[in-house]
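To whoever is on call:

I kicked off a structure prediction for a single chain this morning and the downstream step that reads the tokens threw a length-mismatch warning. I double-checked the sequence; it's 474 residues and nothing unusual in it as far as I can see. Pasting both halves so you can look.
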Amino acid sequence: MTEDPDPRRPLDLAGIGIGPANLSLAALAHAQPDLRTAWFEQNAAFHWHPGLLIEGTSLQVPFLADLVTLVDPTSPWSFLNYLRHQQRLFPFYFAERTHSPRAEFDAYCRWVSRRLPGMCFGHHVDAVRWNAEHAVFDLDFTRLGPAGEAEAVGRVHARNLVLGIGTAPYVPEALRPLTEAPAAATAPVVHSAHYLDHRERLLAAGHITVVGSGQSGAEIFLDLLRRRPAGQERLHWLTRSPAFAPMEYSKLGLEHFTPDYTRYFHALPEPVRDRLVTAQWQLHKAIDHETIAAIHDELYRRGADGGWPDAVLTPGVTVRTAGRVGTTRLELHLDHADQGERGRLLTDALVLATGYRERPLDPLLAGIAPAIRRDAAGRPRVDAHYRLDLDPDVGGTVFVQNAERHTHGVGAPDLGLVAHRGATILNALTGEERYALPERGAFTTFGLRRPAAARPAVPEQRFPVPGAGHLSPR
């Protein structure tokens, strides 16, 4: 779409980014025929962590935590309906599994993304501005070709926005020099997000080091271990965490991923929230019990003849500095906090399982940046309904998804909360209870007072009654 449409007939909601969060919201919005929506994604098709779809890995949440079921079990966009369409309901039933394979979740989301209307893949949103004359947001976009080349430019108007631009691979400062490889370098340095794309290169290396002990680091270490010859593993696994720790997966512990805890967390003072996010690392940055057990079983099996596998697992280690030794080797300078000692490790390949960071909103929202109210740390304020706190001069609403951990807690990126968050956004957008949400979802009472359940909030002059005509960019 290259023409400039009439700003007097805007979309009710434009989504930027099509990951699981905005895909969930789009699926829930599809059941609301009076809403005009469109969704923009720069990639040519939906892909969910393709570099980590390792054979045999499963979701860390039950299959009910799909795009819609926890708020609308009757939705045609549920995982069970996907299985029905794929004629896989009986195999899934007899498998007696509550956690679906990760690759199957990716296939399910792609199935939804190909069938939902208004999905604009291959569209890069370049700029967002507030159009005060027509009380709409102007979104300028570039339509991309198959190779990512610019084919055309266009503009769309929307009363409200939702940003679901996700996270980006994070490389700690000490390790960044390794990512700037000279042309002749042969020692691979790969972020875990791209592991499968480089697995054969990594396996061809004499010695491999994995840095980071979250779920991704554990799955990659296990995959490499299984693919190396017994007695010739030549693997190092390092982490700054004090242990290769199991995920907190007790039933009451999981209640930190309920709307109850989200409401409690949002009501806390900012310094308390910041302290809690750091302290709760074992809720979301550790390793599931099955993966830990599989790693130990594999190591044990390889030592059954009385030897020890050539694998070193060391927690409590920080990479102080790193560099390349010529073009074929990598050098890591290590600190061990508890011992107060330093060491040096030479390796031939490196996997950085160092996590992700939320993509900053400021580059995309530069046109309205002065209107965004911020906290003491300069981060955007986000209210209980996932709306950015904006100056009154901007009459539209900007919702955010998976950019609010500092205000909503560890559940912000969790798949188990995407449907509830999407329903909360739609209720706030329309000012009506389009989706009935439970007032209570946890047995735990967080705090001495139970926060009031979130109710639809009507933004003043932000949701006119939709008129005729559906504006759906293609």
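Update from on-call: the warning came from a stale cache, not from the record. Cleared it. Sanity check on the structure: The chain has 13 helices and 18 strands.
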